[in-house]
Protein: beta-aspartyl-peptidase
Amino acid sequence: MDSQTQITPSLFILSLLLHSLSLAGGHEVENSSLYPLVVSTWPFLEAVRAAWTAADDGFSAVDAVVEGCAACEELRCDGTVGPGGSPDENGESTMDALIMNGVTMEVGAVGAMRFVKDGIRAAKLVMQHTQHTMLVGDQASAFAISMGLSGPSNLSSPESMDKWIKWKENDCQPNFRKNVLPSNSCGPYHLKDSMDFGKTCSANKFIQNCGSVTSHVGRHNHDTISMAVFDRMGHIAVGTSTNGASFKIPGRVGDGPIAGSSAYADSEVGACGATGDGDIMMRFLPCYQVVESMRLGMEPILAARDAISRIRRKFPDFIGAVFAVNKNGLHAGACHGWTFQYSVRSPQMKDVQVFTVVP
Structure:
């Protein structure tokens, strides 16, 4: 199979059936032929290689996830992972990250974290050294620094500031405001007590969105690395890192640090990772659903499609994707609104392979 393989629905089902047959036959497949295994959103090849190398060297699933996501943060994958990416309305970049241990079900997460560039390592510190699940904002930054991570530092970059300046020059469009009236195109925004939006929307170009749901999500302005790692023992962990949606309202936390939305793992079943419009997807916890569907016996391809279809029925214009992988190493992806790619490295592969899934 080529390193970049396009998966059509019929081909995907056929490949899964063949893979299932290869696992059947009355003999248990040795773990050494399945693990380590790394699956990640998007063609983040260096991140997958980093996680694979760590797992192959005997690192735990949790530590391998950290190595993989940290590599993506350092490389600023797609300009939306790590420092120096997606600016908010004020031109500032912030970090969301999560890590989950699929054996203990422990989770550590940070949201809207400022001044600290190591999102995934901060999330691990929350998991290891607190009884909490998530810390947010400046308090998350203070905690991470107190635990030894470098900071405070400016997370903006020349690229993110240039992106923000061009957005300001475009009257701060597009943005995530709705049903508000600014005194000028970039705010400040406010409500009018007597405003009749139905009549005013068509007359005032500065009313934001007028209650409509429009997606500003795209591959290079709203993206997440979501990674699952099976270590040599077959233990599973998942992790995510992102700096969120470009031009988000300051303080916004997406689905990146939400367990069950951006990622979920249970070593008895498998794992899931997600990317896309987190504001929509977190309302459905698609990765929790995927894992629970697989627990009930559903194949990864069907579990992934079912999770996406449930969101699509309520929000037909949403953009997003999930990958699913069970404890037997079967993997699949499903998406809506864009073409999705995910990366895999297994013992049978000489290098990372990228799978393409059409909506």
User: Anything to note?
Assistant: Residues 265 and 271 are 4 Å apart (CA to CA).
